[in-house]
TrEMBL record:
<keyword id="KW-0067">ATP-binding</keyword>
<dbReference type="InterPro" id="IPR052156">
    <property type="entry name" value="BCAA_Transport_ATP-bd_LivF"/>
</dbReference>
<keyword id="KW-0813">Transport</keyword>
<protein>
    <submittedName>
        <fullName>Amino acid/amide ABC transporter ATP-binding protein 2, HAAT family</fullName>
    </submittedName>
</protein>
<dbReference type="GO" id="GO:0016887">
    <property type="term" value="F:ATP hydrolysis activity"/>
</dbReference>
<keyword id="KW-0997">Cell inner membrane</keyword>
<keyword id="KW-0472">Membrane</keyword>
<feature type="domain" description="ABC transporter">
    <location>
        <begin position="2"/>
        <end position="233"/>
    </location>
</feature>
<dbReference type="InterPro" id="IPR027417">
    <property type="entry name" value="P-loop_NTPase"/>
</dbReference>
<keyword id="KW-0029">Amino-acid transport</keyword>
<dbReference type="GO" id="GO:0015807">
    <property type="term" value="P:L-amino acid transport"/>
</dbReference>
<dbReference type="InterPro" id="IPR003439">
    <property type="entry name" value="ABC_transporter-like_ATP-bd"/>
</dbReference>
<dbReference type="InterPro" id="IPR017871">
    <property type="entry name" value="ABC_transporter-like_CS"/>
</dbReference>
<dbReference type="Pfam" id="PF00005">
    <property type="entry name" value="ABC_tran"/>
</dbReference>
<dbReference type="GO" id="GO:0015658">
    <property type="term" value="F:branched-chain amino acid transmembrane transporter activity"/>
</dbReference>
<comment type="similarity">
    <text>Belongs to the ABC transporter superfamily.</text>
</comment>
<dbReference type="GO" id="GO:0005524">
    <property type="term" value="F:ATP binding"/>
</dbReference>
Length: 233
């Protein structure tokens, strides 16, 4: 489904990604792991078209998209729930969700909105409330729900556990795991490696802009180097 070959990106003279290659197969949940500043968010921003690639290829279904505009990538089925949620706090919950469907012209938006409310019942209960009234966990649910309203084939999640209580993290990751049953492929960026690998099929570990480990979720959890560096055991 998604293939990245030799991808590099930078901010001015500061290199953020160096020769990154990875694959995400259709129907998988793949975790992109690493410490703060490793380049994880830059990779997602480059995939969604928000940040330009310096060199390398991004292939979706075998077709290059590294030069495509962000809205074109949305039309191709890529959606991102960004780091920090970035909900529109002065708008209502339902208006935030509508923005996720801004590229759509079909008649199924209302049905899909109801499906988001079924995934996150608290959003349905608070649909008329402004987003600033929501807790951090509820705002994260809203950010994911907004991304789902674009009907993605590939959902990019950036640090969905950031700043949330363990109970809310477990709830959100349980819902993310269920998206496989809806035919949605997920690439999730996380510092919380144990939680991410708990739902992922495979993972990649990024350090200073380079992939340094890759494997199945179980293999990475059992890898002494990964456990020592990221799990503290």
């Amino acid at each position: 489904m998604l293939r990245i070959d030799g991808l590099s990106a930078a901010y001015g003279r500061v290199t953020a990604l160096q020769d990154v290659s990875l694959e995400v197969d259709e129907g998988e949940i793949v975790a992109l792991l690493g410490a703060n500043g490793a380049g994880k968010t830059t990779l997602l921003r480059t995939l969604s078209g928000v940040h330009p690639a310096r060199r390398g290829r991004i292939l979706l279904d075998g077709k290059p998209i590294e030069r495509s505009k962000p809205h074109t990538r949305v039309d191709l089925g890529i959606a991102q729930s960004p780091e920090g949620r970035q909900v529109f706090k002065s708008l209502s919950v339902e208006d935030n969700l509508r923005l996720g469907a801004y590229r759509r012209r079909d008649r199924d938006i209302a049905r899909d909105t109801d499906e988001v409310y079924a995934l996150f019942p608290v959003l349905g209960e608070m649909r008329k409330r402004i987003a600033s009234a929501l807790s951090g966990g509820q705002q994260q649910m809203l950010a994911i729900g907004r991304a789902l309203l674009s009907r993605p084939r590939l959902l990019l999640l950036d640090e969905p556990s950031l700043g949330l209580a363990p109970l809310i993290i477990d709830q959100i990751f349980g819902i993310v795991a269920s998206l496989k049953e809806k035919g949605i492929t997920v690439l999730v960026v996380e510092q919380n490696i144990a939680v991410a690998l708990g739902i992922a099929d495979r993972g990649y570990v990024l350090e200073t802009g380079r992939i340094v480990h890759t494997g199945t979720a179980r293999a990475l959890l059992d890898d002494p180097a990964v456990r020592d560096a990221y799990l503290g055991v």
